[in-house]
Amino acid sequence: MEAFKLKTLADLLDASDERVELIDGEIVQRPMARMEHGLAQHRASVELGPFDRPSGPGGWWIASEVSVHYSAHQCPTHDLAGWRKERLPERPRGVVEIVPDWVCEIVSPGHERKDTLTLFLLLQRQQVSYYWLIWPEERSLVAWQLDGGSYRVIASVAAPGPDERKMRIPPFDAVEIDLGYILGD
């Protein structure tokens, strides 16, 4: 019987399929892109665009579909990730080896465990300051902030009504974010 060998970044880079990521030492298929997922990801990126522009509040490198190599057996591809320019003045390139300051995942049906548990625990261990999850089908968002080594909820919105449509959510609380737009109004 052959022992199970944990995969590494080298194995991931050798993979013939580009829609894979390295999670807990396994190369796993990423979910098929759905319209709801793509719209939520695009709209979140649009809403956060001012933070990536010198003319806005600035101060961030924000990217979609970026692979982050956290450790020997962990290299997920995040739907959205951001790094503060004060901490990382030069734009990251390639597979990023520097822990982001913020990650946002769009939860895909059948892959909930990865986003809500596996990545949640990985990002908490890696001290990613903010973690957002968006469920496009349920039109909801939950945002966590690292507090003493553990995440605590800082925002939770489900099917935002008129009073919740625009919110300021850290770390992007310098501007109001239109959650109705992101969540599919």
UniProtKB/TrEMBL annotation:
What CDD domains does its record include? DUF820-like
Q: Which SUPFAM superfamilies match?
A: Restriction endonuclease-like (SSF52980)
This protein's record includes keyword Hydrolase: yes
Query: Sorted alphabetically, which keywords does the UniProt record give?
Result: Endonuclease, Hydrolase, Nuclease
Please provide, alphabetically and separated by semicolons, the GO molecular function terms listed in this UniProt record.
endonuclease activity
InterPro entries in the cross-refs: Nuclease_put_TT1808 (IPR012296), Restrct_endonuc-II-like (IPR011335), Uma2 (IPR008538)
What domain of life? Bacteria
Endpoints of the signal sequence: none
Residue ranges constituting the Putative restriction endonuclease domain according to the UniProt record = 11-154
Q: What is this protein called?
A: Endonuclease, Uma2 family (Restriction endonuclease fold)
What organism does the record attribute this protein to?
Thiocapsa roseopersicina
**Could you read off the lineage of the organism from its UniProt record?**
Bacteria, Pseudomonadati, Pseudomonadota, Gammaproteobacteria, Chromatiales
